[in-house]
């Protein structure tokens, strides 16, 4: 039943005292496997941009330093989520069951959110109120 999935990636931060969301990507996945692949790919993409390899020649020696132990290491958390097969299976089960999945990690300035939901479940939610409209 849940054959198609809508996936979003958004970064949230505070600007002028207001929480602002910046869309980083949207994908309408034709299969569950592609939805999971896209979420992992986007999580890896964010991690690589936040935490590039120190061996990259684009950065001078010493330009990149590890984050302090008191700060959430968002790239590490995203990479760990991508590598955790048990969590991937849990996400797959939730999506296959028609439930919204939200993966969120944050540091002191930004929250990164990955969302996925079944297009069929969205359609069903839109029609349910119409099924209970009183007649007469």
Order of secondary-structure elements? EEHHHEEH
Rounded Rg: 19 Å
Count of distinct strands? 4
Largest sheet, strands/sense/barrel: 4 strands, antiparallel
- The overall average pLDDT, rounded, is 87
Helix content: 25-40%
Helix segment tally: 4
The CA-CA distance between the termini, in Å, is 34 Å
Low-confidence stretches are none
Strand neighbour order, sheet with most strands: 2-1-4-3
Secondary structure class reads alpha+beta
Overall, the morphology is globular
Q: Strand fraction band? A: 25-35%
Structure, described:
Helix 1 runs antiparallel to helix 2 (74-83). The chain has a four-stranded antiparallel β-sheet. The longest helix has 19 residues, at 32-50. It has four helices and four strands. The protein has helices spanning 32-50, 74-83, 85-96, 119-131, and strands spanning 5-15, 18-29, 101-106, 111-118. The chain starts with a strand and ends in a 5-residue tail after the last helix. It is α+β, with helices and mostly antiparallel strands and 136 residues long.
